[in-house]
């Protein structure tokens, strides 16, 4: 007996997505829309732990009316609805999704082996074009220790690379932020050691 052919799902047949198409997806589905490409992220336990640490570090000195969070979509345009790993946004939008991109003080992406190009190029362009003033990229795949790169929006609408470091990161833009990058490296090493001990 042969199996009946199943019609392709919308996920299989759709190539160029817009925010209007997202209404056809299940409400509990986690997704990102980058340049019309639908991305269904599946973060690891380690990835989420790094995000939680970053959120806690960004909470210190956060300006009144703002707060750090993660796994929240940003409303950008018809072909883009990114879901940054961590972001600092207005609390006034706390009951809304997606959050207007103009509400974001900064966004952070944590690179995974499958997201490197997307985080370093595609999202960088989307966030710059949307006017996000500060973009931080945290790379736990860097062998010399976790690497943090700060991008700041320049007058020409593109990001300037301010610093790449695997040491303690401090800045006053957009507010006084300290990120203990060596502590993130220690966390990564703990997870690697646990994996090796299996």
Observed structural traits:
Uma2 family endonuclease, globular, single chain, alpha+beta, 198 residues, two-stranded antiparallel sheet, disordered N terminus, 25% helix, Restrct_endonuc-II-like, six-stranded mixed beta sheet, tt1808, chain A, nuclease, Uma2, 26% strand
Describe the structure.
- By secondary structure, this protein is α+β, with helices and mostly antiparallel strands.
- The chain has one domain (43-196): tt1808, chain A, CATH 3.90.1570.10.
- It contains 4 helices and 12 strands, in the order αββαβββββαβββββα.
- Strands 3-5-7-8-9-10 form a 6-stranded mixed beta sheet.
- It is globular.
What's this entry about, in short?
This protein is of the alpha+beta class. The protein has 4 helices and 12 strands; from the N terminus they run αββαβββββαβββββα. It has helices at 10-13, 45-59, 116-129, 181-196, and strands at 32-34, 37-39, 66-69, 74-75, 86-90, 99-100, 104-110, 134-139, 147-153, 159-165, 169-171, 177-179.
Compute the average pLDDT.
87
Relative strand content: 25-35%
Distance between the termini: 44 Å
CATH fold category name = tt1808, chain A
CATH class: Alpha Beta
Count of DSSP strands: 12
Fraction of residues in helices? 10-25%
**Order of helix and strand elements from N to C terminus:** HEEHEEEEEHEEEEEH
CATH-scheme architecture:
Alpha-Beta Complex
Q: Outline the low-pLDDT stretches.
A: 1-12
**Total number of helices:** 4
Structural class: alpha+beta
Largest sheet: 6 strands, mixed
Write the layout of secondary structure elements.
Layout (H helix, E strand, L loop, with lengths): L9 H4 L18 E3 L2 E3 L5 H15 L6 E4 L4 E2 L10 E5 L8 E2 L3 E7 L5 H14 L4 E6 L7 E7 L5 E7 L3 E3 L5 E3 L1 H16 L2
């Amino acid at each position: 007996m042969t199996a009946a052919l199943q019609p392709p799902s919308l996920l299989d047949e759709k190539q160029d997505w817009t925010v209007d198409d997202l209404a056809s997806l299940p409400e509990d589905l986690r997704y990102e829309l980058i340049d019309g490409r639908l991305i269904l992220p599946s973060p690891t336990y380690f990835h989420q732990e790094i995000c939680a640490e970053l959120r806690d570090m960004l909470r210190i000195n956060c300006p009144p009316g703002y707060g750090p969070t993660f796994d929240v979509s940003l409303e950008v345009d018809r072909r883009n609805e990114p879901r940054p790993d961590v972001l600092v946004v207005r609390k006034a939008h706390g009951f809304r999704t997606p959050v207007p991109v103009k509400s974001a003080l900064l966004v952070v992406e944590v690179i995974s082996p499958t997201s490197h190009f997307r985080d370093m190029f595609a999202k960088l362009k989307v966030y710059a074009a949307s006017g996000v003033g500060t973009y931080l990229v945290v790379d736990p795949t860097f062998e010399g220790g976790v690497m943090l790169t700060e991008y700041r929006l320049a007058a020409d609408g593109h990001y300037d690379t301010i610093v790449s470091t695997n040491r303690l990161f401090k800045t006053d833009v957009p507010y006084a932020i300290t990120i203990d990058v060596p502590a993130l490296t220690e966390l990564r090493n703990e997870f690697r050691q646990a994996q090796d001990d299996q």
